[in-house]
Amino acid sequence: MAMNIMSTTGCLLEMCDERFELEDYQGGVPRWCTGCGDNAILAAAQRLCRDEGLRPEKTVFVSGIGCSSRFPHYMKTYGFHGIHGRALPVAEGVKMARPELTVFVNTGDGDCCSIGAAHWIHAVRYNMNLTVFLHDNKIYGLTKKQASPTTPIGTKSNTTPRGSYLEALNPLTVTLGVQNVSFVAQAVDWIPEVLFDIVKAAYRHKGLSFIRIVQRCPEWLPDMFEPWMRDPDKVQLLHHDDGLQFSASLSRLYKNQLRHDPSDLNRAREIASSLEPIPVGILYRNPDVPCYEDLLRSDKLRTPELTRAVLDAEFDKYTIRPQGSEKMQA
Amino acid sequence: MDADTQAQVAFFLTGRRPSECLAAVDGLDLRPALFAGYRELTRLRYDFPLVLVGGRADGLFAQSLSGLVDGALETVAQGGEGERIRKHVLRLELEIRALAAAGVVKPFSALWDEAASRLTKTADKSFAEDLRRARAAIKFDGEVADCDTALPSRLLRHGWAAVQKQKAEAFHKDIGRLALKLSDILKADYERSDAGRSAKRLKAAVGASFGDTFDFDAMSRMLGKALPQDAFPPSRRKRICDLLDVFGRQQFFPALDAGTKPTAAKPYSFLFESCAEALQAFRDRMPMLIELVKAITVAELEIDGQYVESKHDALFEQFGANGLGQQDLARFPDYLVCVNAGQLQAVEQARLMEILSSSFPIKVLFQIDDILEAAPTGGSNLDTGVRTRQIANMAIGLNTVYVLQSSSSNLFRFRERVLRGLAYRGPALFSVFSGASAKASGLPPYLMAAAAMESRAFPAFSYDPSAGADWASRFFLEANSQPDLDWPVQSFAYENEEHQRVSEDIAFTLVDFIAGDRRYAAHFASVPRAKWNGSLIPVDESLTRERKSLPDKVPSLLMVDEGNVLHKVIVDEKLIGEARRCREMWHSLQELGGIHNSHAEKLLARERSAWEERMRQEVEAHAAQAAVVSAASAAPAAPEAASPPVEQEPERSADEAYIETPRCSTCDECTQVNKKMFAYDKNKQAYIADINAGTYAQLVEAAENCQVAVIHPGKPRNPNEPGLEELLKRAEPFL
Fold first, then answer.
1. CATH architecture of the domain with residue range B334-476
2. pLDDT tens string A187-231
C-alpha cells in the first residue's frame, strides 16, 4: 500500500488553487535600453514563476542598485529595490523573518562584486534558500560606463580612459571558493533555452543558488560580446545526467559540449576558470549543505508573550539605575 | 518383534501402558532434555527483564537489562580495574534479575538502588564505588518488566503511549501555530478598526513615558481617515472565531493548559479492554473528529489568505461525508485494545473481525496464555493453538492489517516491529503467546514461550502492508530459528554411563514442547534404561516415515528429571499426528516467507530441464557443424540498436521570412520596429505575428537590430516596394 499518496483533502484543496499566466507577473514596462540582455533574464524569471505556479503575494524580488536592480519594478510580485551592494542582506532578512516566501535576488557586477562583495561572500557561506541572479554586463551601465570589477583588462571606460589595468574578477571561482557553497551555474542571456533551464534548476535547489548570467550591454559595450555571439563554439555547454540535458536542435548549433558532473567541486573550479570558451551550465550542486535558516529555526511559537519576554530581558541589560540604588537595595 | 518392542508399539498405537515395561511420566518431573541448562533463569544473562524507557518512540523504547549493563561496562570497565568492575556490576545485574523475577515492580533506578543496598552491606568499599560509576554511565530509566503474563500488555501500552505522545506534541505544535496566526488576523483587524485607533487605545500603545508628548485625538482623527476601504468581512470574522472555538473544545488530545484551566474539556481515553467498546467509541467520536480536521484545513487556508468563500464554502459543506482518509486520521490518537484469547466471547470475536476488516487506526493486542488448551469441540485433534493462531492468519488474509505474531520471549527482538505496527496507519493485530500457562508445569513463562516458538507451535512473523507491494517485502519469518528446516536442530551433550562426553544433534519438535506440559503426561511413557533398544527413534525421524504396515520403530524423545538424569520417553501416535499437522502449518508459513516455495521450485525445475534440453541440442548442433567443413558463413550481424529519434526542424525556403523563436532573447528590438508584425508568444519570445502588417524594409531593419540574429527576412512580398535592391543586399547575411 503506497503511503505517500496525497490525502483527499489535499487533492480537493489543490483543485481550487489558482493558475497564473505570464501577464500575472508582468509589472511596469521595462525602461532598459532596447536590446539589453536584462530583458532575457526578466522573461526567464516570469516564465519560471508561471511554470512553478509561484503565488505573486508569496514571491519577493530583492535588488541593490544598478540597471539590473530595476528588476523588481518589472515583476508584479513583492519587491525591494534596496541600497547599493545590500541586496543580499536584505533578502536574507526577508527569508529569515518569512521563510515561507520565495526570495530572488537581482544584483549586478558592480553591486555584488564591488561594494557588496563582503555580503556576497557571507551569503554564500550562510547558504540561505535564495536564488541569486548576478547580471554581469561587465560595466556600470546606469551611471554611463565606468569600469566594474568584472570589466576585462584594457577596456576603456569613463574611469579608465587609457584602458583598465587589472585582470577582471571571476565571480564563479570566487563563489566556488567559499565554504558551504551549494549551487553555482553560469548562463548567457543569448541562449534563452539554457538560461531558463538553469534558472529552473537554481530555483529547485534548496540553498543559495548563484547564477552568473553573462549579459550583453549593447549601449556601452556593443562589441564586447560579438565574438561569442558570432561563434557558437566559443560557448561550451555543460551537460550531465544530474545536470542539464540539451535539445537536439540546440546541440546542432552549439556543438562544443562537455560532460561535467555537478557534484565534482574541484573540476567545477577548473572549468569555472576558463574564459575561452565560456562554460554554460551547472558547475556545482550539493543539496546536502544545510541552510542557515533551518539551523536557526526554533520550534518555539513566536507568541506576543515570548517576544515581550525576550525584549524585556534585553532591555534589562541596559537599564540605568539611579546612582546608589544598588547600595540601597543591599 | 520382542516383547519390549511389542509393548512400546502397543503404547504408540493405543496409549496403553503396561506397568512392567513402561513407566508413567507423572511424578518424574521430566522436562525436555534441551531444557536441562535452563533450570534457574535468574542465573543466566538473556534479554529479560526489560527496561521500558520513558519518552522514546524509537527502537530504544525498550531495552534489555543485560544490554544496558553491557553498555555501561564498555564505558567504565577499562584498564586494570576493568575485570573487578565487571564482576561487581554483573553480580548486581544478577540481583536485579532475581528481584524482577520475584515480582518486584519498580523503576530501574529504584531496583538498582535496592539491589545495591542488599549487596553492599557485606561487600568491600570498592564494590559501592564500582556500582556508582556504572550507574552514572547508564542514561536510561523506566519501569522494569520481566517476561510474565503482564509483559505483552505492558510493552504494547508503553510503546503505544510513546507514539501517542509524539502525536500529541505534533498536534499541539500545529494547533498552537494555527491559533496564534488566526488570533493575529483578528488582532490586525482590531488595530484597523475605529476602536483600535481611538485616542485612548493609541495612548495606551505609546506608554507612560511619552504620553504627554502627543495629541492622541489628532492622531486618532488622522489615522481614522487613513482606514482602508476594504473592510474585514463579518463572515470571515465569524469563521475564524468558530475555528478557534473548535480548537478549544477538542478532546482528542489533553489541553496544554488543562492543569491551570479546570474548565478544559476532559480528553478522551483511547485504551480499551473490549473491541466492541473501542469500535463504538471510534464511531461516536467521528463527527467531532471530522469537525476538527475540517477546522484545521480551513484554518490553514485562512492564515494563508487562500480561503475564497465562493469556492470553499461548498467544498467544506460536505466535508467528511465519506468519513476520513487514513492520512487525515494518522495525526490523531490510535486506539489500543488489549484482549485475552481465553476470555473472548463470540460477540467480541465478531467485533474484532470488524475492526480488522475496517481501515480504522485501532491496534489490538490479542494475548494468548495457553496454546495447549483442550479443544472445545472435544474432537480427535488437540487444539495446540490452531484456534488462536487462526486469528493472525485470517488477519493476514485481509491484506491491509499489520499483523505481528510472536511469543512474549521474542517481543524484545521484535521491538522495532512492534513500534512499526503501532505507528501503522490502519488496524494492527498483535497476537502474542505469553507462556503463562507454563506455571502449572513448573516452567517459567519465558521458557514456555521460547519453546513454543522454537517448536513451531507458535512461530513468530510479521506482515507489514506498508513495507512494499509484494510478500517478499511484507512478510518476515526469519526471526524463527533455522527457518529453512522443519524443526530446529540443537547440539546436546551429556555424560554416558562410562562417564564419557557424548554429543548429539536433537531436533526440537512440537512433541518436545508438549512434553513440558503436565496435562499431556498420559501421551508419554518412560522406557526403563534396561529396555532402551534399537526400536526407539527420534520423533523427527519418525515424522519422515510413512506407516504402511505394523510399525517396528517407536518415536522417542530425550528428557531429563530433576537431577538432570537422562530418560527416554516414547510418545503415542496422537501427538505424532499433531506434530505432523504443526509441520504442515509451518510449511505454509515457509512458503509465504519464500522458503522452499513450491511455485518457485516448480518453475526452477521446469527451467532447469529446458536449459538442459537446450544445452543438449547445442552440443548436438556443434557436433553436426564440425562435421560439415564448408559451413563457414558468418552469422548475420545483430540489428543495430535503434537510434533515438532526432528532432526535425521544419523545412524552410530562403524566400520565407521567419524567426528562430526558441533562440529569441526578448530584447524588444523587433517589437520596437513594428508591434503588429512582431509579437511575443506565451514564453515572451518573438515570432512573426503578421507578415503583412509591415514592409520588407522593417523586416530587414529588425533582422539587423536583432541582438542574437534570429530574424530571417526572406524575400520581399511586394515587388513594388521602393529601394528593394538595396534592401535585398542588406538582407543577404540573414537569409
1. 3-Layer(aba) Sandwich (3.40)
2. 999 999 999 999 999 999 999 999 999 999 999 999 998 898 889
Could A47 and B683 be called an inter-chain contact, meaning their C-beta atoms sit closer than 8 Å?
A: yes
Q: If you count DSSP H runs as helices and E runs as strands, how many of each does chain B have, helices first?
A: 24, 22
A81, β-bridge pairs = A63
Cα gap B522→B336, rounded to integer Å: 41
Examine residue A133 and state whether it is found in any structural domain, yes or no: yes
Q: Which residue of B has its CA nearest to A248?
A: B647
**Residues of B in Cβ contact (< 8 Å) with A1:** 400, 465-466
Q: Which of residues 660-689 of B touch A (CB under 8 A)?
A: 662-669, 672, 682-685
Q: Which of residues 165-194 of A touch B (CB under 8 A)?
A: 189-193
The length of chain B, given as a count of residues: 735
From chain B, the residues in CB contact with A249 under 8 A are: 647, 649, 662
Q: pLDDT tens digit string along B145-174?
A: 999 889 999 999 999 999 999 999 999 999
Total number of residues shown for chain A:
330
Q: In what order do the strands lie in the sheet with A131-136?
A: A78-81, A59-63, A102-108, A131-136, A209-214, A183-188, A278-285, A235-239, A257-259
| A76 in contact with chain B, both atoms CB, cutoff 8 A | no
- Gap between the Cα atoms of B278 and B358, Å rounded: 13
Minimum CA–CA partner of A223 in chain B = B707
List the one residue out of A111, A125, A3 whose CA is nearest residue A63: A111
pLDDT digits (tens, 9 = 90+) for B97-118: 999 888 888 899 999 999 988 8
CATH of the domain at A180: 3.40.50.970
Residue B433 β-bridge partners: B368, B407
B258 in reach of chain A (CB within 8 A): no
DSSP A112: I
What is the separation, in whole angstroms, between the first and last Cα of chain A? 71
User: What is the average pLDDT value for chain B, to the nearest integer?
Assistant: 86
Could you give the residue ranges of the DSSP H alpha helices within B45-150? 65-76, 82-101, 108-120, 125-137
* Contact check, Cβ <8 Å, A7/B328: yes
Please check whether residue A320 touches B, CB under 8 A: no
**B103 C-beta neighbours (distance < 10 Å), count:** 9
- pLDDT tens digits for A81-95? 999 999 999 999 999
Q: Is residue A313 part of a domain?
A: no
The DSSP 8-state label assigned to residue A98 in this structure reads -
Q: Report whether CATH 3.20.190.10 matches the domain B658-734.
A: no
User: What ipTM describes this predicted complex?
Assistant: 0.75
Contact check, Cβ <8 Å, B665/A299: no
Residue B2 dihedral angles phi and psi, to the nearest 5°:
-75, 170
Chain A residue with minimal CA distance to B464? Answer: A1
In angstroms, the CA A294 to CA A300 distance is: 14
Distances (CA, A) of B80 to B69, B86, B87, B576: 19, 11, 13, 57
Inside any domain, residue A193: yes
Cell numbers found for residue B273: 479492554
Please check the confidence at residue B17 and state whether its pLDDT lies above 90: no
Q: Of the candidates B369, B350, B368, B365, which has an alpha carbon nearest to the alpha carbon of residue B428?
A: B365
Residues 6 or more apart whose Cβ sits within 8 Å of residue B429: B356, B363, B364, B366, B391, B392, B395, B401, B402, B403, B404
Residue numbers of the domain that contains A72 = 27-298
Contact assignment for B325 to A37 by CB distance below 8 Å: no
Q: How many CB atoms lie within 10 A of CB A270?
A: 15
Q: How far, in Å, CA of A34 to CA of A51, rounded?
A: 26
CA end-to-end span of chain B, whole Å?
Answer: 113
In contact, A211 and A131? CB cutoff 8 Å: yes
User: Hey, where are the domains in chain B?
Assistant: 3-34+487-599, 49-146, 166-195+230-326, 196-229, 334-476, 658-734
The residue type at B60: L
SS3 category, B570: strand
